Amino acid sequence: MQHGRFITFEGIDGAGKSSQIAAVVDILRARGCTVEQSREPGGTPLGERLRELLLHEPMNLETEALLMFAARREHLAARIVPALQAGNWVVCDRFSDATYAYQVGGRGLAREKFDALEAWVHPGLQPDLTLVFDLPPEIAAARVVSSGAQPDRFEREQRDFFERVRNAYLERAQAAPQRIRVIDANRPPEVIRAEIEQLVVERWFA
């Protein structure tokens, strides 16, 4: 049986990932793929409980990174790896690139600690395609406010934090250009969807 594909969506809060994730799932299912849609932190009952702690409880930076990777390890073991081995596709809102961007770039976690955790939790496994939705933090922040949702402790950070997160995402993309594609998220949703659909179709269905 063919091994499935793993697609992740990344970007600062307010970049507009959610609607595009749903669109990609529809695109894949229309082509006969079995797709699992998930998110991080979360994706499993334990992961969702850890998500609540991570988004709302103040904690030490290293505790935060360890909990992120603990949730990820459970997610991989319970859902991602079994789905890929069964030949299914996995579309996930955030993965380890988010930890790099937020904890290393945003908060200043030592890079070698991130590298050690990544090598321990998913050695040899990276997404087949990562789409980074790039948007100036001030525009993203305005979108978050206009949504009316109650902000979590990450969304309440100052603009300079999100500048660091954004720069870390772009740095990560520059280091892995075959895997990571940067999407200009400051455009109409239908234009973004068309670009992503073309990218997915050309890569796997042309």
UniProtKB/TrEMBL annotation:
One of its GO terms (cellular component) is cytosol. InterPro entries: P-loop_NTPase, Thymidylate_kin-like_dom, Thymidylate_kinase. Pfam families: Thymidylate_kin. It catalyses: dTMP + ATP = dTDP + ADP. ATP binds at residues 11-18. It comes from the Bacteria. Keywords: ATP-binding, Kinase, Nucleotide biosynthesis, Nucleotide-binding, Transferase. Its EC number is 2.7.4.9. One of its GO terms (biological process) is dUDP biosynthetic process. It is an enzyme of class 2 (transferase). One of its GO terms (molecular function) is dTMP kinase activity. Residues 9-196 form the Thymidylate kinase-like domain. Phosphorylation of dTMP to form dTDP in both de novo and salvage pathways of dTTP synthesis. Belongs to the thymidylate kinase family. PANTHER family: THYMIDYLATE KINASE, UMP-CMP KINASE 2, MITOCHONDRIAL. This is Thymidylate kinase. The lineage of its organism: Bacteria, Pseudomonadati, Pseudomonadota, Betaproteobacteria, Rhodocyclales.
